[in-house]
Amino acid sequence: MRKIIHVDMDAFYASVEQRDDPELRGRPVVVAWRGNRSVVCAASYEARRFGVRSAMPAVRAERLCPEAVFVPPDFTRYRTVSRQVREIMRRHTDLVEPLSLDEAYLDVTENKLGLPSATEVAKVIRDQIRGELNLTASAGVAPNKFLAKLASDMRKPDGQFVIRPADIDTVLPPLPAARIPGIGRVTDQRLEQIGVRTIAQLRELSQGQLQQQFGRYGQRLYELARGIDEEPVVPDRPLQSVSAEDTFERDVPLAETEATIRRLAEKTWAGTRKTQRIGRTVVLKLKTADFRILTRSHTPPSPPASVEELTRIALSLRERVIGEEKTLYRLVGVGLGNFREPDDAPLQAALFEA
Questions:
Q1: Rounded to the nearest 10 degrees, what angle do helices 185-193 and 207-214 cross at?
Q2: Residue 353 confidence (pLDDT) above 50
Q3: Mean pLDDT computed over every residue of the chain
Q4: 197-237 pLDDT tens trace
Q5: What is the CATH number of domain 241-341?
Q6: Domain 4-12+76-167 has CATH 3.10.180.10
Q7: How far apart are CA 205 and CA 68, in angstroms?
Q8: What pLDDT was estimated at residue 344?
Q9: Does 13-73 carry CATH code 3.40.1440.10?
Q10: What kind and span of H or E run contains 124?
Q11: Positions marked catalytic
């Protein structure tokens, strides 16, 4: 049986800001750029008491909490701190699977320091994060990834919760079905239509009934409702995609997106320089004023070999947005995906030229 820990930093971006600026401590901090189109990247627990949440429009956060201190995000600094947290984790196991800058799974079935239990490993990691980085983290300990992530939310902030195999049938049934990964707004509405609001009610449906309602995901729902999750912790997942996007200050027509597409292509290309893998598919993403998402993609015979080539393809994809020329857009994004190892991808001669 595996021993899995999910470590989740508490209000990570906001906590870093409060740590580094004593004047922010104890105050409601919102990490976001100001502006009508900005969204909240993170909110301190002082701000959350007013209902401020991540991904909320910044203007709404300001209405909910007029006394909030708005701090522009500094992702370079957050990445540095995130690496320091990972270094602490890797003292205990090499099986660390980052999910984002502020959370990761660890498989400590065997731990490097020979500590007697996963519970003790989680406690030591949290103590080291607090002592060395002056930040707090919450942790969940369980026999699989699903339960560990669920557990890490149980004692936030700065807490720890353990779900042992014998606890599964006590802890899971009372929880809302929406706590299961993959149940978003649409799936939750479909479950409500068939009378399912809790995991206990979800368990009343047979495997066949769930597959009939939700296809292949029905099998996954059946298993997770019973605490079954066989997914291993996978360290250092290979890069699959890099992208950058931006929201305009005002809605703009398609013809006015070129400068932004060029800038985002440069940002995306810079993001690929951190890996030896090679991206083959260029993606252009557009969000209309009424929040429709349009995407266009192209996989050339040879992967883009320069930022200029990536930019050219991204701009050509804009020409494939047929019939939408008069539509106004609020967001544009440029991405590079379908990454392969160098030996698996045909390269243009330019890559080998001096």
A1: 130
A2: no
A3: 90
A4: 999 999 999 999 999 988 888 999 999 999 999 999 999 77
A5: 3.30.1490.100
A6: no
A7: 46
A8: 54
A9: no
A10: helix 118-133
A11: 103
